[in-house]
Amino acid sequence: MLFVFAVIVAALVLFATEALPVDVTAIGVMVALMLAEPVTVLAADVGLLAEPVYVLHQAGDGISPLNRGLSGFASTATITVLAMFILSDGVQRTGIVQILGAKIASLTGDSETKQLGATVGLVAPISGFINNTAAVAILLPMVTDIAHKGKLSPSKLLLPLSYASMFGGMLTLIGTSTNILASQLSAELIGRPFSMFEFTQLGIIVTVIGTVYLLTVGRYLIPSRIPAEEDLTEEFEMGEYLTEVVVREDSPLIGQTVEEALRVSEFDVDIVQLVREKRTFLEPLGQKSIQAGDVFAVRTDRDTLVDLLDVEGLDVIPDVEVDDAELETANERKNLVEVVVAPGSSLIGETLVSTSFRQRYDATVLALRHGQELYRQRMDHVTLRIGDTLLVQATPESIERLNRNNDFIVAQEVARPDFRRSKIPIAIGIVAAVVGVAALTPIHIVISALSGALAMVLTGCLRPPELYDAVQWDVIFLLAGVIPLGIALQETGGADLLAELFVMGAGSVLTAGGGLAVVLGLMYLVTALLTNIISNNASVVLMIPVAIETAQQLNANAFAFVLAVTFAASTAFMTPVGYQTNLLVYGPGGYRFTDYLKVGAPLQAVFAVATTLGIAYFWGLAPA
């Protein structure tokens, strides 16, 4: 038991600090648990211990520690979540969500109420049937464009987009990976999984409450961090960092290629575009030879510019403002966009230098928003994370490639000719069949979901190579790693001990006349606080065994306590790190960490009351 608690504490610290990616931490947990029994058994055999302090399996259950440690990979929850990623991607590639978004966007105008209502009203129901992180990623460009066209700060809409996706995910079993995981744990520990629409009635109630909050109190608490401007250079405050220079006749750069000049330069400078003989060139510029009279738009600070002019033989072109209009002259189509680092991106933990971003994507990064920090110089060695926003200039063709790349989310609407619109009825029909079969027949959700994923490929909604890109592998490895931790917590008696401590703490509430509903509310709050610090899936794994043991010690309905933990873990409003959708809008919204607390804490408190009362009403607190 002590070993399990040590692993839990270490995992919580790593999850909270993000010293390692969450999936790496989860794999470390899994390895530690598999190594534990041989070590403790050996110690017992040589007389160092009276008995093993940690055994991964119960005596006589016929399952080896190795198989138990790897059980997360064979878990129905892990496989179901994997299949749901594929189903969501199949729907996404038809363009149906973008079509719905465009139709709704055309009705919003410049009314903040309409824009906010459209954002919440669209993402919440969609999140009930496709992965809510995917829903936010798909709708983020549309919502940003709605805000800019309506002269509204995108910050006013992006946080509601994240929050609505979370409470919308509670409409069905498949809305979030957390629900699917909680269902499996509930089935294993008390023999009662969730049905497809198990908590839909409560999900509708909290969705309505959340919507009303965001349209009233929330709209006044959400700050306008990003200016309500269409000009991206103004949004990223690039006025002091973009300049046009001309190459003098005596410049030592003449004859060098752009790549050579940048490689040997000791200055923090990027060449954004080249104007030669009234033609404008964007990346790739590396192999172009520099000539006298070439005009370069460059990104650098004023002090560096002064030194650069003297050393490299350049002159500043006066009275030229390098803004969006100037940077868009190379092409009639959009070539200046915001790009968001997506969940599961290969860039996470890397830098612009280590990924060779300019060469790899034929694109120039002008600025980087890292949470509330804005970098316009010395960006090359900033470690990238989910939600970081890059101001990128590139050709329309390069932007289209970025838009098709699952590593990124382009935060402005970019036309995608590769949408398979003819497959819209098929993709929707497949998802409807998956939901219907799981809801109305004895067939398990994992079989239904895998069949749907196969159907997406057989019908051409997805191509076979796209299957692997559709899956967020960090989430899969996170699930596979933390599931054995929940088993260990249960089987070593750790859950019993934590439940006893919780009951002791709640004893004063019961003594003072508070009922089981108050204790249920406390369980919700404890889980909510935990999930705002660490992964929501890790919170479910740790708290559901404790919730069940607590209910049994109080002679209460264990299923009600499972539901409280599930709802709390799926609605992490108070920090950007509590849920992936919060991280996705962190950079594009320009939010501060405290913004989530200011807006999310009241909503979390309202949900605590509404969820507790709803569970008590629909499922009861007395033991079944």
From TrEMBL:
<feature type="transmembrane region" description="Helical">
    <location>
        <begin position="29"/>
        <end position="50"/>
    </location>
</feature>
<dbReference type="InterPro" id="IPR004680">
    <property type="entry name" value="Cit_transptr-like_dom"/>
</dbReference>
<feature type="transmembrane region" description="Helical">
    <location>
        <begin position="202"/>
        <end position="222"/>
    </location>
</feature>
<keyword id="KW-1133">Transmembrane helix</keyword>
<dbReference type="InterPro" id="IPR036721">
    <property type="entry name" value="RCK_C_sf"/>
</dbReference>
<dbReference type="Pfam" id="PF03600">
    <property type="entry name" value="CitMHS"/>
</dbReference>
<dbReference type="GO" id="GO:0008324">
    <property type="term" value="F:monoatomic cation transmembrane transporter activity"/>
</dbReference>
<dbReference type="InterPro" id="IPR051679">
    <property type="entry name" value="DASS-Related_Transporters"/>
</dbReference>
<dbReference type="GO" id="GO:0006813">
    <property type="term" value="P:potassium ion transport"/>
</dbReference>
<keyword id="KW-0472">Membrane</keyword>
<feature type="transmembrane region" description="Helical">
    <location>
        <begin position="426"/>
        <end position="450"/>
    </location>
</feature>
<feature type="transmembrane region" description="Helical">
    <location>
        <begin position="116"/>
        <end position="140"/>
    </location>
</feature>
<feature type="transmembrane region" description="Helical">
    <location>
        <begin position="161"/>
        <end position="182"/>
    </location>
</feature>
<feature type="transmembrane region" description="Helical">
    <location>
        <begin position="70"/>
        <end position="87"/>
    </location>
</feature>
<feature type="transmembrane region" description="Helical">
    <location>
        <begin position="470"/>
        <end position="489"/>
    </location>
</feature>
<feature type="transmembrane region" description="Helical">
    <location>
        <begin position="501"/>
        <end position="527"/>
    </location>
</feature>
<feature type="transmembrane region" description="Helical">
    <location>
        <begin position="533"/>
        <end position="551"/>
    </location>
</feature>
<keyword id="KW-0812">Transmembrane</keyword>
<dbReference type="GO" id="GO:0005886">
    <property type="term" value="C:plasma membrane"/>
</dbReference>
<keyword id="KW-0813">Transport</keyword>
<feature type="transmembrane region" description="Helical">
    <location>
        <begin position="599"/>
        <end position="622"/>
    </location>
</feature>
<dbReference type="Pfam" id="PF02080">
    <property type="entry name" value="TrkA_C"/>
</dbReference>
<feature type="domain" description="RCK C-terminal">
    <location>
        <begin position="322"/>
        <end position="408"/>
    </location>
</feature>
<dbReference type="InterPro" id="IPR031312">
    <property type="entry name" value="Na/sul_symport_CS"/>
</dbReference>
<feature type="transmembrane region" description="Helical">
    <location>
        <begin position="558"/>
        <end position="579"/>
    </location>
</feature>
<feature type="domain" description="RCK C-terminal">
    <location>
        <begin position="230"/>
        <end position="314"/>
    </location>
</feature>
<keyword id="KW-0677">Repeat</keyword>
<protein>
    <submittedName>
        <fullName>Sodium/sulfate symporter family transporter</fullName>
    </submittedName>
</protein>
<dbReference type="InterPro" id="IPR006037">
    <property type="entry name" value="RCK_C"/>
</dbReference>
